[in-house]
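Q: How would the C-alpha cells look for this protein?
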Amino acid sequence: MPLVLIVDDNEKNRKLARDVLSTAGFRTSEAATGAVAIALAVESVPDVILLDLGLPDMSGTEVARQLKSGERTARIPLVALSALSLQEGGDWLEAAGFAGWVEKPIRVGTFPDQVRRYCVKGGR
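A: Here is the predicted structure in C-alpha cell form.
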C-alpha cells in the first residue's frame, strides 16, 4: 500500500483527500505546515507528497526546494495541490521540482488514479 503525505493547511481539504485515498487502499499521513511536512517526509519517506502551494509558514515551492535537497527525500515525487488552473503556464512547477499537479477541489472519482500515477515504483 503506497504511503501518501497530504500537506494542506485546510483541515477539510486534508480530510477529503485522506478519506478518498484511504477508501482506495492508500495509507496516508498529514501535515498542515511546511515544517511538519518536511519532518514527516524525512521520518517516513512517503511514496508521494501532495503539497499545497500556499502554507502558513512557507510556500510550497520552498518546501519542495528543501525536500529536493535532502538525501532521504530528494527522490519523492511532489504533486502540487492548487485551486489555480495550471493547464497553461505550469512549467515553473517542474522547475521547482514538482512531478505534476492536481487541481483543487479534487475530483473524488479520479483522484486516487491521479495520485497512483505519481507513486514511486519499487523500493528506495
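The helical segments are 11-23, 34-44, 60-68, 91-95, 111-118.

Residues 86 and 118 are 17 Å apart (CA to CA).

Upvote if useful.
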